[in-house]
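Incident log, structure service

09:12 report received: a user says their structure output differs between two submissions of the same chain.
09:20 pulled the input from the user's history:
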Amino acid sequence: MRHDHAPSALSPGNRDALELFTPIAKNYERWSTWLSLFQDPRWREEMVARIEIQPRAQVLDVAAGTGMITRLLQSRGHRVVSLDLSASMLGAARRRGASAVLATGEALPFPDGSFDALTFGYLLRYVPEPLAVLCEFARVLRPGAMLGMVEFGRPGGIWRVPWWCYTRIGLPIGGLLAGPGWSHVGRYLGPSIDAFADKFRAESLSALWEAAGLVDVRTRRPSLGGGWLMWARRP
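09:34 re-ran on a clean worker, output below:
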């Protein structure tokens, strides 16, 4: 499955995401692993492992990027559609065999009830109306289907200061070392994660999922709170 028309009417957040990720598609997986201190692959694996679906399920992976979550789902025997707004990122996923669709999470080009599960990673920070996006996700899920998310969190307590130092000093330096495009990512991520954490506490984000009509909402904060995993189900 292919859909090669560029998404139209992008929100400012989507334009930020497109500007960030297009230049780093070629080496995204290597440096996202290193700059997350090897935590990002662990979060993705745990999120996928806790989604309860039957074998050979039809799954939509939104904000799929280069297909890291897609391949985890495929390794479990599922049929996956990878969706992203960056043609460069999706190109990497497609070269590894993904069924790629170029679109945004706000306007999924699928009929109601098309999928047995939906996954997404690092998306809600970039959209102006997270509730509208979650409602759109719920729309394309079949009754009983699960939704899974991976996102950056923000540690609390004694870990807040080391985390701040890493995201404001370590990440920008690491971005400079990683090469073209990554210096922008290194400067952008810390403030972006902070802004999302300030806007949504775990309870308020769970309430947002419930407002979208989702049930059985579960949250986990691995890596001392540096990761943010969520799951829910369409009733």
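09:41 both user submissions now match this output. Likely a transient worker issue. Closing.
09:42 reviewer note: Residues 2-25+38-154+201-233 form a domain with the Rossmann fold fold (CATH 3.40.50.150). The first helix runs from residue 12 to 21.
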